[in-house]
């Protein structure tokens, strides 16, 4: 491995780049196909599917961007993701705090109960959830998606937060107690602000999970009012099945928010995924 | 429980304590030693626990138990609770159901393909990106992009790429000089392999990131010491990298299998399980039976089967494969 000569290093780097570029082409081709395809018309897609658009056709992208349905679905996705993230992080932080910092009878049993939730595939619950939501007339209500999503996010969020909270030294809490802070003030004014990085991590995981979810919105939102972007894309494909270029523009614009989010929250996302630990 | 993770939209991995992100500033390395046995009032406890517990019981525990209950009935989902108790009938039907058996076969096939192709690809690229060469950050960012895209949206994109009306894949082949039309998604023998290709595209970046993190956790001193002793590159890889990457590899295999068992979004949007169930998954069979044909009891039996498959795999895997990781290289794999 210790290649020291210039020539050797050049060779080595060439090999690296060859492999890396091969993988990059594999990854980028489908996305470029969507991006460029949206700028073509359907005739170009047929006759010139590999080349650059000629001429560049902005019609499909502008059509989607002035489409109220697209913006409504985008707004629904954002609202549902933010609401379920807020609920899961708030509820999980409170209970993780109690698990991490207090002794009480049944603590370990209760924690195990939550942690066992990791083992239930969401698909197991979706039929009963549908029946429950139908019974309580929560179909087509955003909370029919928000609350189950938050509930299924609890186990992982609790496990991560608990293991973080218990690493905060006891002295911090003692100092706060001496200064007269009760459990509430300690939790809200000291523990949570100290935990900002891990709160960011679990929030990003919850946001992404909600943003991507498909099965639950599919069965809960039978009417268009609250339908989210993933549902919207699949329906748009159904409606415009013969207009591939238009669908590609819709696909590309639906991917864009996630790509922008990734650009800004890459660190939290990666650390969440690699450290989203189950140390509990 | 020693923590089984089995929900990949938000995949989770064991780590050791050296992850910077999981450590509060200034906490040094002194976990839990300082915990006090404080006894808060019952009222305070209730307020802190209740929201999470209520959510969890209503929307996780109860539905799962309800699914287990309805699996023993014939039920169309209407009119109060199920009444037509049929015992194990649904499960008996299940083990003779060719669609179900096909689902299980495809879980095995995709698992084998993933371990043989997808994970080695991810591993190789992680080792590559661990090398220091200009531009590697850009490659790393790019390789992770497919993983962050929504499965359903990805599926729409690939259904256009593999469209029967001369999609992009056909044009690409024509550009290379092969002018055949291939029924990418309509050929019963081929569709699983096309699906596997898409799954590889979508998920290799996730495994790559885990391998990269695992590789970065191997102390460089080990390599330096071995080099001083005259080890070759191949020996470094064989005797340091491979064994120390073991825990990470075992976790990714685990996550990959569990993810395969639970596949739904991507496949449902791409093919709806077709043609003739050739790409169907357990979750799709469950969805079709429950939401399309209103066989709620049978669909519940399918979902319980999915849970059991995950659970049995997880238990066996934990016991025989992950067991040693939990004792050694990972800090407190069990409870603290």
From TrEMBL, chain A:
One of its GO terms (cellular component) is plasma membrane. It is found in: Cell membrane. InterPro entries: MetI-like (IPR000515), MetI-like_sf (IPR035906). Pfam families: BPD_transp_1 (PF00528). The chain crosses the membrane at residues 16-39, 78-99, 111-133, 145-165, 186-208, 247-265. The keyword Lipoprotein does not apply. It is a multi-pass membrane protein. GO terms for biological process: transmembrane transport. Residues 74-265 form the ABC transmembrane type-1 domain. Keywords: Cell membrane, Membrane, Transmembrane, Transmembrane helix, Transport. PROSITE patterns: ABC_TM1 (PS50928). Belongs to the binding-protein-dependent transport system permease family. This is Carbohydrate ABC transporter permease. It comes from Glycomyces lechevalierae.
